[in-house]
């Protein structure tokens, strides 16, 4: 373990590419750690409570000796930055409770067990980030900021947003398991959200009783054969294109509650021939022209409602 604590004057510490350290702890505001040039630094864990770490173009690999249990990266203050790549070869957790984290070029956190943000600001890398493997991992945000990025964001474990703000990618944000939004802000960044879970059956939830979630483009393309997910009686508004590629979508509203579980498209709707139907409802509500295209798959058996500000005609809506 290498620890930097309780200094009385400013210190700059240089870690050369090729360095391998079991644990790095920084809890001193007067310490700045950097790495020159290119190459790789390996460590089992980093604890950043104060001070600054800037690895520059050096790549960072977690998993120096063993599979870490608990937090492999734990930041409660200070600033972390890199322009290189970050690779997660450990079963440990990523925890950010305060401070600023800048993700650099790309991050592969496939093996990360729990990715948690309760405060501070996390800026994903411009080249994209993958979080969790399969459906056993979890993304948990109760505060702070998950900032937007121009790269793809791929979250494979369960997603829970209970506080703070999650800003989706301006390109593609994929959710590979349950989507549970109870509080906080979900911002779509004019990108595309993709539900692509391999799990055979799961649900997604919007905040509030008969809640509403707002996306730009939304694609349902479940990875499992005859997979399905449930809208939990909520409204899922899509400002751009709603595209159903694969999977069954059910509304999930409890009988007698009046909560239907419905897509509310404001743009075009496309059902591909690989779709599997379901009993979700569709409520067209856009102010501009909307087109519905079915390429051979079954339509939802729930009610289809046109509730546009001006009633559609041959000039204002196209049906195929």
Please give the structural blueprint.
Elements: E1 2-4, E2 11-14, E3 20-34, E4 40-54, E5 59-62, E6 71-81, E7 85-88, E8 93-102, E9 106-109, E10 114-117, E11 121-123, E12 129-131, E13 138-146, E14 153-155, E15 158-167, E16 172-175, E17 179-187, E18 192-195, E19 201-205, E20 212-215, E21 217-221, E22 228-230, E23 235-238, E24 242-246, E25 248-250, E26 262-265, E27 269-271, E28 281-284, E29 290-294, E30 304-306, E31 317-319
Parallel strand pairs: 1-3, 2-3, 3-4, 4-5, 4-6, 5-7, 6-8, 7-9, 8-10, 8-11, 9-12, 10-13, 11-13, 12-14, 13-15, 14-16, 15-17, 16-18, 17-19, 18-21, 19-22, 20-23, 21-24, 22-25, 23-26, 24-27, 26-28, 27-29, 28-30, 29-31
Mean pLDDT: 88
Main β sheet profile: 26 strands, parallel
Number of strands: 31
Strand content range: over 45%
Q: What is the approximate shape?
A: elongated
Count of alpha and pi helical runs = 0
What is the percent of helical residues? Answer: under 10%
Radius of gyration: 22 Å
| Low-confidence sequence ranges | 312-320
End-to-end separation in angstroms reads 65 Å
Going by helix content, strand content and strand pairing, the class is mainly beta
